[in-house]
Amino acid sequence: xxxxxxxxxxxxxxxxxxxxxxxxxxxxxxxxxxxxxxxxxxxxxxxxxxxxxxxxxxxxxxxxxxxxxxxxxxxxxxxxxxxxxxxxxxxxxxxxxxxxxxxxxxxxxxxxxxxxxxxxxxxxxxxxxxxxxxxxxxxxxxxxxxxxxxxxxxxxxxxxxxxxxxxxxxxxxxxxxxxxxxxxxxxxxxxxxxxxxxxxxxxxxxxxxxxxxxxxxxxxxxxxxxxxxxxxxxxxxxxxxxxxxxxxxxxxxxxxxxxxxxxx
Length: 264
Prior knowledge:
Helix content is about 35%, strand content about 20%. It is built from eight helices and eleven strands. The strands form two sheets. Strands 2-9-6-11-5-3-4 form a seven-stranded antiparallel beta sheet. A four-stranded antiparallel beta sheet has the order 1-8-7-10, with no helix packed on it. β7 and β8 form a beta hairpin. The longest helix has 26 residues, at about 20-45. The chain is globular and about 45 Å long. It starts with a strand and ends with a helix.
């Protein structure tokens, strides 16, 4: 079942301007994206699913088992939240998110850029098993947003992914906890799916007094050939970049610290 969509009345928030080395890195990134644009256009033209901001979960059969078993996922999530203070903020793993992330936006990764976290999958075996059934999943984690978090507007860099959220903990009132994609506001519902294209400008906020948690997935966009080949090639090359390798090292370092402290 899809979420109710309404027109957003959320005020725009300006993204902080990067400075120094970060500005240089960002300019290099933007240059690379301009080179990649023709390839992204090919992926969009050959997509087997719509390229609109909001997508229907009914077009993705793999969403149904996640919804059907969401309470099992939530039970494992509750075990993870016991160690909430020791979980990494999203930007502490994904360095590219420093301009949008917050210390109050925590993460618990199962997969990152196609790499599986064996330790975290052992901690949540049922969740890991359900994720493994999703065709083309590259990134999967519990996204834990504390009260008062508001992410500034941002866009994903590559059209070759589909973004998925499964509501696991959704605080009230719902109108004060939402995601806005391409100007359309959606509200999470526990046990229900949201599917969207993150290359459209989007933002999320939690202005309630409770914690919002979703299972967050990035899944390879299904395409016809040659778009399917191009998409897989670009994603594979991206996984070899220093940025991704650094993110992997950061997560491995966190795993070692967590295991040393908690012995699991």
